[in-house]
Amino acid sequence: MPQVKVGLVGFGIxxxxxxxxxxxxxxxxKNRLGSEVVLKKIAxxxxxxDRGVKVDNRLFTTDAMEVINDPDIDIIIELIGGCDYAKxxxxxxxxxxxxxxxxxxxxxxxxxxxxxxxxxxxxVDIAFEASVAGGIxxxxxxxxxxxxNNIKEVLSILNGTSNYILxxxxxxxxxxSEALSKARKLGYAEADPTxxxxxxxxxxxxxxxxxxxxGTPYHFDDVYREGxxxxxxxxxRFASELGxxxxxxxIARLIDGNIEARxxxxxxxxxxxxANVINAFNALYIQxxxxxxxxxxxxxxxxxxxxxxxxxxxxxxxxxxxxxAARRVxxxxxxxxxxxxxxxxxxxxxxxxYYFRFSAVxxxxxxxxxxxxxxxNNISIATVIQKERESDSSVPLVMLTHEARExxxxxxxxxxxxxxxxxxxxxxxxxxxx
Amino acid sequence: MPQVKVGLVGFGIxxxxxxxxxxxxxxxxKNRLGSEVVLKKIAxxxxxxDRGVKVDNRLFTTDAMEVINDPDIDIIIELIGGCDYAKxxxxxxxxxxxxxxxxxxxxxxxxxxxxxxxxxxxxVDIAFEASVAGGIxxxxxxxxxxxxNNIKEVLSILNGTSNYILxxxxxxxxxxSEALSKARKLGYAEADPTxxxxxxxxxxxxxxxxxxxxGTPYHFDDVYREGxxxxxxxxxRFASELGxxxxxxxIARLIDGNIEARxxxxxxxxxxxxANVINAFNALYIQxxxxxxxxxxxxxxxxxxxxxxxxxxxxxxxxxxxxxAARRVxxxxxxxxxxxxxxxxxxxxxxxxYYFRFSAVxxxxxxxxxxxxxxxNNISIATVIQKERESDSSVPLVMLTHEARExxxxxxxxxxxxxxxxxxxxxxxxxxxx
Lengths: 434, 434
Description:
- The structure is a homodimer.
- Chain A has three domains: about 5-135 and about 305-325, NAD(P)-binding Rossmann-like Domain (Rossmann fold, 3-Layer(aba) Sandwich), CATH 3.40.50.720; about 140-300, Dihydrodipicolinate Reductase, domain 2 (2-Layer Sandwich), CATH 3.30.360; about 345-430, ACT domain (Alpha-Beta Plaits).
- By secondary structure, the first copy, chain A, is an alpha/beta fold.
- In chain A, the strands form two sheets. In chain A, strands 7, 8, 9, 10, 11, 12, 13, 14, 15, 16 and 17 form an eleven-stranded mixed sheet that branches. A six-stranded parallel sheet of chain A has the order 3-2-1-4-5-6, with helices on both faces.
- The relative contact order of chain A is 0.13.
- In chain A, strand 11 (about 280-290) and strand 12 (about 290-300) form a beta hairpin.
- Chain A has 14 helices and 17 strands.
- In chain A, helix 4 (about 85-95) packs parallel to helix 5 and helix 7 (about 160-170) packs across helix 8.
- The radius of gyration of chain A is 24 Å and the shape is elongated.
- Strand 12 of chain A pairs antiparallel with strand 12 (about 290-300) of chain B.
């Protein structure tokens, strides 16, 4: 029986999960592949800590290059994360003629073009299913399952930590910081949760998604992002009253030859299937021009779901090896790339519906002043809620708008926030209805 | 540029959709494949009706064999449905060395083994993404995306017509026959909806699913099935009161080396993500041992979603052709099949929670008699609802049970239905909580 020989670089949480699935599920993997997957070497700086999985001690080395330069190894799995060493290791592995599996979203979102070019130069595969949405096989779905479609739109929940925090805030009425503590206690948030909370993690994934959908490697900086740290229980309550919930949505959309690629807390109708994606789950709601609406849902992080995705890639590359079909599907799934690189629309130019919460003094004429400014900037109001005074100084005045241009919204809010009847910066959310 | 040359047998609704997507989306298909897909011939008995898609008239023939025997054609797409001619055509195409794409679930569920053996004999691919859940790329997900997992359980909604009817009954409180008329008017139900309503259609798909999950071709007769034609608004109301909705679930599950494969109307908790799959949508809720819970959702039928799946298969086989990698993934995704064919558990042996609605006369002692019989058959009651008398003769007495064995349930209900205080046959539903 032929063998697929694998070297693992990075033996942290996910690396240990990969070893575990290769051991526990060796039978089904062998049956599916028609070949044994043999873990030949594991490199990590720490080769002594117990990761809860039994691996032959002789496999370990602290020298990544020993794995990458081993002529006996077919496929390198890179799971160290970060951009410096990981990039160097992957490039060297490809130069050595090895295929690569990686879960490194930050690296792909910043150096995707370099990695893909190098894989072409050396005629090897680079697979990265685990880099987006963990266990959900969304890369395969986009590269293959929906390959006949022009993808019109993706609305997605790509960060489990943020989704868990927003779910707790919604269900329990607690503040962001209280919900964050809960997430920390349950291990859903890292000691330093910055990348989750500020939207960087999800924006890395969105960058990879738009690269796959539109066939050219985009860069992380192209994607607009806002995190969830400013979401208040008050706005979640108003959202609910209006028939919405607040989700951190990663949005990709093709409009008139331009791409929208943006990530921000968003109003989503409560009866939308994405509203039912709660706690640490991820999901992608994808519109194709023939397939219509689809949803792909699962765990976006964690040792076992991520290992499922990494080993799916291993099986894929193993099948390529056995069939002699390296690069059967190219990294972005385009064998002859689109003629034109589609531009990303500047945020000012997007058109959306909006939620505003004004903090206005309780005086006659306030509504008229505010709506006057909105009207003269082409923003038309769909719904207004004005509440009883809650504090001494101001009352919340809440509005949903019809479709408006972001630049007009910005201009209006600048003017409105300068009014003497408005006491705090106006709160804004974008609304997705589809 | 190389070409992938295709012959289409069957130019009905889906066939026309396939022609349409090959024309409309030729650019993205060519970009992804690195090759043109050329539709060389189309066979149908009716080559005159307008299908709303512009195809060169010279492609048409009324003789399927003219397509199947054309030495210039690489891939045959079979879309005529049914078991007789379709089987003959596919076998002949494979004998001629052609790869096959089919959407024919009935054929696969009844003659899968024969087709797969034949594809092995002639060294060709047979792809059937469109046979289960329409546009949802679930075959690819199971064969590849989740390939590293042992699949523990699938709970799925596989028939859009039934799901539409149950949704209307639930939302509007209308009867089965009223909801069926609506489905007919909107084109969600055929003139003869028998295969949808009696569960055959979904059971065909479930047969294919268990074949894929467990690696051996099962037969349609192995799968237990009940349709939705006996579902009453009354039970939907009780379900709702108890926190459930009624869905036609196709269930596959591995328990102690036995397979459960059954299809029946089922109580599903209202906060389960499957409860939010409404109208004509399909969805599969899949548990893998590493990936955890996943959901795949989309349109399970219709010209355009089905065409999306057929052409995904075309692209897959085209990629195989270009890479010289025919049979890179075998039909059931097992290169070395599992040693043991797992048996399907007889229905009597399943263990489930149950909903009962007894129609009992309103006399003292009734509850005691019924619960006595249940107790002496090892069935323990979790919840009871007894309502005010609604008609002259009887009151509904509703129970949810803890886990019980189906054979014990059958025995008990036989005894209970013979009691003189019970005036109608007891209504039973199985309950899924996970």
